[in-house]
Write a sequence for this structure.
C-alpha cells in the first residue's frame, strides 16, 4: 500500500505542480488573465487528483483481492491527497520566491478594481483595501501561507477520496480482471 500511495501521490503532485510552474509565467506576462486562474487551477487540481481513484482501485485489485472497505479506501485516497497537497504548497513557495511581480499587490489591485467596477463607494473600497492589507501582513508568514495553500487543494482531494472510496468499495464496480 505504501508504494501505491507514494506513486500516485507523486504523480498527482507532479501534475499539479508542473501546471503551476507552466502557468505562472503566463500570468506574469499577461498571456493568461489572472481572472481565469481559479478556473485553470481548480480544473488542474481535479485532473491531477483524479489519480486518487486509480490509486484506490490499484490497491483494491492488486493487494486486497478485489475488495476494499470504505475506511481503507478513504485512507489511501487521503494519503495520496496529503502527498499531492504538500508538493503543491511547496511548489507555490518556490514559485512565489521566483516570481517577478508582487503576488499580493496584484491580488489587492484586482480586488480594488473589482470593487470599483461593482460601483462600490469610497468607504467600501477603503474596506477592501484594509482587508487586503491585513491579508498581506498575514501572508508574509510562511507557515500561514503554506497552510492557506494546503487549504486550496486539500478539500478537492478529500472530496475525490471520499467519492472514490464510496464507489470502489463495491466489488462489482470495475471488478478485477485476472488474465492468465
Amino acid at each position: 500500500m505504501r508504494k501505491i500511495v507514494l506513486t500516485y501521490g507523486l504523480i498527482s503532485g507532479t501534475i499539479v505542480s508542473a501546471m503551476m510552474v507552466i502557468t505562472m509565467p503566463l500570468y506574469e506576462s499577461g498571456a493568461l488573465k489572472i481572472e481565469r486562474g481559479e478556473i485553470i487551477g481548480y480544473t488542474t487540481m481535479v485532473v491531477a487528483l483524479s489519480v486518487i481513484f486509480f490509486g484506490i482501485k490499484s490497491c483494491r485489485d492488486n493487494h486486497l483481492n478485489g475488495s476494499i472497505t470504505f475506511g481503507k479506501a478513504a485512507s489511501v485516497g487521503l494519503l495520496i491527497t496529503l502527498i499531492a497537497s504538500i508538493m503543491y504548497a511547496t511548489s507555490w513557495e518556490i514559485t512565489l520566491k521566483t516570481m517577478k511581480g508582487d503576488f499580493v499587490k496584484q491580488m489587492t489591485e484586482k480586488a480594488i478594481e473589482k470593487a470599483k467596477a461593482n460601483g462600490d463607494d469610497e468607504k467600501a473600497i477603503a474596506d477592501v483595501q484594509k482587508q487586503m492589507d491585513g491579508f498581506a501582513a498575514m501572508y508574509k508568514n510562511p507557515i500561514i501561507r503554506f497552510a492557506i495553500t494546503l487549504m486550496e487543494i486539500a478539500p478537492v482531494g478529500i472530496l475525490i477520496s471520499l467519492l472514490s472510496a464510496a464507489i470502489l468499495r463495491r466489488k462489482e464496480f470495475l471488478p478485477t480482471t485476472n488474465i492468465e
